[in-house]
Design goal:
Blueprint lengths: L2 E5 L14 H22 L5 E6 L18 H15 L1 H12 L3 E5 L10 H12 L22 E4 L2 E4 L3 E4 L17 E2 L2 E2 L3 H8 L17 H9 L3 H23 L6 H18 L3 H10 L8 H7 L2 H21 L5 H19 L5 H16 L3 E4 L5 E6 L2 E6 L6 E7 L6 E10 L2 E9 L10 H6 L10 H8 L19
Parallel strand pairs: 1-2, 2-3, 3-4, 6-9, 9-11
Antiparallel strand pairs: 1-12, 5-6, 7-8, 10-11, 12-13, 13-14
Helix pairs in contact: 1-3, 2-4, 5-7, 9-13, 10-11, 11-12, 13-15
Amino acid sequence: MADLLLISDLHLGSHLKPRMRGESVHLASRIEEIFPRFLEHYMQEGRRWQLVINGDFIDFWNIELAGKQRRPAEQLAVARLHAVFDAHPGVEDALVRFLRAGHGIVFVTGNHDAELLYPAVRAAIVSRLCGGEVVDTSRTDPTSLSVLGLGRIRFVRWFLREPGGAWIEHGHKFDASCATQAALSPTRGGELVKTVAEVATRSFANLMPEIDYDAPDKFTAADYVRWAVARGWRFVLRVILLYLHTAGRILALWAGPGRVDKQGRRAHAERLAQVAANAGLQMSALQALDEMAPPPSATRLWGLLSITALDHVFVVVLAVLLGRLVGGLAGVPWVWLPIAAVVSVLAFVRLRRRKRPRNVARDMLEVAAGVGEVTGVPLVLMGHSHRGTLERFGDVVYANSGSWLDGSHLVVHRDPDTQRFAEVELRSWRNGGVVRVRQMLVPRSAGPAPSELELQITPPPADVSRRPQLAAAERGADVGSTDPAMMWPRRDGG
């Protein structure tokens, strides 16, 4: 069996839009130069590799094609895919050589490349990388690493699992703004539903190249105000109009576009049963994972109001109405103003205390141990957070591949005698070579995934919020990294 080479979050195609920053073009050219050398390095090691591209390989959210935006969703996704490979011939050729050398490639679906769920997109990838070879792209339910095979391409909707070995998924399921209902078939009318993060990216960030790529992961409302004011009143007016348009589109998700229809939910339920059977898991284990994840933001009206900061507007309006009502009942009309002011201030204080700043790295650290316990594996591998991580919680090792744009990736070696996963390494590709940032032995599995009864009585994982590595994630520091130097400027968040 092959060792694992795990990368994620390349975000290919993020420069393919009418308005873009020069650094995006530079980044695309650097990928063209460095990715082929990266794969060539590992091919020369003499091992057999299973390359796991663990989500967000292609950034469909950021690709805008002039004259093609009104196509049906699946056709448009295929056009975007071809545009990405046409813009990255070096990446395409490197993947072709990797396959021909006898290694395997598996694409795990992420939030930026959920379009991999479209059959035509998967067929287009196979056509580009395998030429005339006939590959069955209709199957996206393999969940066992042992059945993937080498010299082949596979596609995975949610996760990969090796019983007693490892659990692999992108991880956006645990990020409410990037998650959807019915993740195995998140469709409405046959088309993928939108997430809050996707709508915000397409409606605001793509039209505002002046803003940093990672602003949504670190900006507060006050930061956005200061950023706009610093550029003059005309820019402020433009930002306000664009914000109102974006807020309207985000709120519209709750009314329908962000909700999966009955057909999608039925397809999800059918696929979930098949996935559980393929993975050797009870349905109760997958349901436990669902309960660990927050509900998608697009399905909660108050959550959408909070994300768009319209909850503050709602509070002010409610306070004014309350003040008017009290003033009218008391026969003192002017009293509404102080009442409204006091109620607004108290409500604002309450809102600020309840709001928890978005921190993807922290949130994923919090669920890692629980995922390992529920699925019965000692090794949990994810992406999405863009922060390379390697930590141990009790009997579970959690590793995050970070973003390959920073050179961050994971290597998992098997024991040559037992073929079980024995060691995981967090590595960084830099200056044409590999830097081993951190390595850790994989604990022996305690046994199969818990039974349904055990899932009901097993207490939740110990609170990891007070642990030093989680505190580092709270501060925005690199978790588990002993060498902060990286290839490119950091791009945080999902």
